[in-house]
Structures are given as structure tokens and as C-alpha cells.
């Protein structure tokens, strides 16, 4: 496996050799490729649907793009004035579309979104085990090679604008786009990186004198970040092809620019030099690469949480996907033997090149995956899914917090309902937003899910063509067969349900069903 940095570098370089073309509804793939090949060898290409058909073309050499740009025309300005910016976004127009219709062939469109939960459940029912169901879900939801290329291209296109002001800057993706846990359709988090420019700061010339750049001095780094993002935001808004709905959110804890990139179809968030967030992405990349069960379990738990309203795309008191991912990794650290190492164990394997202190935070951990011993744990995903729900359904959240550095529960430092230590910024709780009702809902659903997995008759469910295993967990509880619901209610050992019975004095099973449904 390549290191996180090697993958990033390779994909960023790949993106610089890539263009995006908007195509007519009826197009000859062969003729388009023949025309483009006259400017240089094409490494790869694919078509996708997004407000019309688009083609992503990756050339072998960067100068092929310059050759193509030299012969491409600026649109006519008679109807609308245009900003003459030579980007890598093009429109392909057929001069004689009627005459060329015979040359058309059916082109394959690469999917850029995952299937619906309803279709997923149907697909899962055809699997032969819960493990294969979880791998099916992973394959349907994870980012495809094509989608990842598109994400890096979006960053590269923003970088073309940023370099007009800051020639040494790079725009890199972080978060779900690169940490191996991204789902098709997720936003693109990107940051403007000045590390290449900063490398010049420490260079000292030999001899009796030295030279340095004259730079604008500002009172604080935060103000510098706000000014940089303000300028780039305006530039994208006024001159960026396909950049719409640009919002400058400069007074947030981490200032950012939000925008929609229409050519690729992504919602994007741009920040500046978000170093700790990048290290978090790399840490998750390592965990995702260590064992195939990690990603399969994370994707299944996150899909389950979304179906039951535990997570949301709208900010609020819900558990975030990041928090859920950390809970899964913590659970895997706690298995016997552990499936993944603790952050402190990864830090102990770090060499000098892996040492990173950002501010006052030690963000050091090994980057070379070959230095990490594989686990001896042989548990199946069937067992892990059940045990995840069983573990957190009975976790003492009132007293304990979740610490991935140590891989064990520690006493809560403060009274937040859910306390998950940030792996690097140890004074921060990444789940501080979660309130008590949401945590209780999570616990109740975890217990309910463990009960279903433990009690269900898989063979009988398959014969009667009812959802089973993971598929049964992806149907909101209370919307199933009412008779099944009665049986479930009898077996729930949940303190939450018991307290509902005591406090509300529910007199019949129907009322209890409503309570569970809520």
C-alpha cells in the first residue's frame, strides 16, 4: 500500500494533466477521442451525466493541454460578455450533428451517485451472509476511481485561480474525499496549501549577506486567512466557470468559502492550510487500509445511522459521521485481539520523518503501512456488527469517554452526554454537539439492532422473502410487520423502553409500538 502522501501527490499530478469537456447529447466517442489524441496520448477517460453529458480526459503529458488550449476558441461575445479565462473546462460542439448521427454509439456513463436504500435492501437480500451484505453495501456506496479523479480535478481547477495570486500554492482535498471513508455524493473539502511557499522561508544563502521577500504583514494569521479566502471567494464568484452559490463564511471558527461546482456536480468547502484536519484524514486512511473489515463496518454503521435519523446533513445535535467512524475504530481497538492499533501505538512506530507537531499538538504517527503488524483477529463481520451494537448498547456513557489514543474508556473530563477525545487536539470533544435525547436514541436503536440480529431466523426470513441481517436493520423500526414488532418489544432489554413504560404507564402493546417507533 502507498502512503497517504504518495497517493495525494500522484493524484494531484494526475489532475494537472486532466480536462473536463461538456458534450452534446448525441456524441461519437470515437471521433472525440481521435480529435483529442492529435494533441497527445490519452491515458484514461470516462463519461458521466451531470446537467448533461461530460467527459473527463486524462492526458499522458501536461503540455497536451497547452496544445489543445492554443486551438480552442473563446465563445462569441455578441449575446453575453465573457471573462476570457483559459481554463481546462471545454464545450465540444458538433458542426454537422445531423450528418454525424450515424457515427454515434452508446456511451457508457460512469455513475456518480449511490443507489437508493430501497434498491440496496433488495440487493442485500440476495447475499448469502451478513458479511457479504456489508461488502455489497461498501461496494455500492464507496467512492469510485472515476469519482475520486473528478474530486481531485475540482481541486486542481480551483488551484488554477489561486495561482493567479499565489503561484506556489496548491489546492488539496482532505476529509472524506481522501480518507477511504467517503460516500458517493459527499461534499469535497479542500484547502489552500502554502507549504511549498513556506519552504523558502528557512532557506539561508551562504555568504556575507542574505535576501528575502518583501511581504505584507498582518496582525494575525486568522486575519490573513480571512483576507486570502475573501479574495479567492470573489475570484471564483466573478470569474470561475461553473462556480455558483459562492458563500464567504469568514467569521467561523475555521473560516471557509462554500460554493457549488456545477461542471463536476460537487458542493465544495475551501479553507486555508488546515493542517490538523489533513493529519486526521491521513490517520483514517491508515485505519481504512489496515483491514478490509474496518471500512465495511464503518459504511454499514453510518448507513444504519442515517436510515434511523441518527445523523443528518443539517448541523445540529445529531451524531456526525466522523464521530461514528471514531466509535467504530475504538470498538475495533477493544476487540481481543485488537483489529487495529491505538493512536499511541502508531505514534511509537513513527520515525523522524513522521514527527509532526502542529501548534502545541503532537500529530506524529507512522505513515509506512508495512511497519504495522497485521492483526491476528479472525472475527467475521457478522460477529463484529452484532458486537458493535451490543457493546455501545451497554456502554456507560454517563461515566466514560472514548479515547482512541489509549484505546480504552477513560473518565469523562466534563459532562457532555457523549465525549470522544479528538485524537490530536486532546482538549477537544469531537462530539460536543450531541445532546442527551440523541444519545439515548442511539443507545435504544443499538440495543434493538443487537436483539434483531440475535433473535432472527435467517432461513425462515429468506424463504418468506423478508429482509434479513443488515437489510432488516436498514428499515426504520416500527415500519415493519406489526407482528414482528410485537415480538421485538417483548425481547427488548432496554432501560430506555423500561423507563418509558414506568413514566408513561403505557397500557397496551400498540402504545409501546408508537414509543419505539419514535
TrEMBL record:
Protein name: Poly(A) RNA polymerase, mitochondrial
MF term (GO), any: metal ion binding
SUPFAM superfamilies: Nucleotidyltransferase, PAP/OAS1 substrate-binding domain
Organism in which the protein naturally occurs: Tinamus guttatus (White-throated tinamou)
Stretches assigned to the PAP-associated domain: 383-418
Entries under Pfam families matching the protein: MTPAP-like_central (PF22600), PAP_assoc (PF03828), RL (PF17797)
Keyword Transmembrane helix in annotation: no
Cited PANTHER family: POLY A POLYMERASE CID PAP -RELATED, POLY(A) RNA POLYMERASE, MITOCHONDRIAL
GO terms classed as biological process: RNA 3'-end processing
Swiss-Prot/TrEMBL cofactor(s): Mn(2+); Mg(2+)
Domain RL, first and last residues per copy: 3-71
Domain Poly(A) RNA polymerase mitochondrial-like central palm: 130-288
GO-annotated cellular components: mitochondrion
Keywords: Magnesium, Metal-binding, Transferase
Matching Gene3D superfamilies: 1.10.1410.10, Beta Polymerase, domain 2 (3.30.460.10)
InterPro entries: MTPAP-like_central (IPR054708), NT_sf (IPR043519), PAP_assoc (IPR002058), RL (IPR041252)
Signal peptide: none
